[in-house]
Amino acid sequence: MDALQIVAEPRRRQILAMVWDNELPVTEIASRFDISLAAISQHLSILKQAEMVTMRKDGNRHLYSANHGALETFKPILESMWGSMLGDLAKTIEAEQGEESG
């Protein structure tokens, strides 16, 4: 699958935005969508095969993060597709993290 086809799928773009600056477990990623964990796992698998995300195991958790090195060539394309969404999403995530730690 072509890299642009991969990021053309809205949920994959959302996943990439979520893990851009944060390493997140698959369950937390899935909790933000209205589709099954299996469907999110399939999206993550596609992103991982394309080397757009990395996954590491921590016990029984699978933690995902953006592979910035591989995505650097796509940065202008991704930024144009995301526009201000990244900033809005970052604010939302920071607010949620603040609520969890507060």
Walk me through what this model shows.
The protein has 102 residues and is α+β, with helices and mostly antiparallel strands. It has one domain (3-92): Orthogonal Bundle (Arc Repressor Mutant, subunit A). 63% of the residues lie in helices and 14% in strands. The protein contains seven helices and three strands, in the order H-H-E-H-H-E-E-H-H-H. A three-stranded antiparallel β-sheet has the order 1-3-2. It starts with a helix and ends with a helix. The relative contact order is 0.17.
> How much is the radius of gyration in Å?
13 Å
Taken in chain order, the helices and strands follow as: HHEHHEEHHH
Q: Structural class of the helices, strands and pairings?
A: alpha+beta
Strand order, main sheet: write it out: 1-3-2
In total, the number of strands is 3
CATH class: Mainly Alpha
Task: Give me the oligomer status.
Answer: single chain
- What would the CATH topology be? Arc Repressor Mutant, subunit A
Residues in helix, %? 55-70%
Show unreliable segments: none
Shape annotation: globular
What summary fits the major beta sheet?
3 strands, antiparallel
CATH architecture identity: Orthogonal Bundle
Beta-strand percentage range:
5-15%
**Number of domain units:** 1
Helix count, per DSSP? 7
> Average pLDDT across residues?
86
End-to-end gap: 43 Å
CATH superfamily: Winged helix-like DNA-binding domain superfamily/Winged helix DNA-binding domain
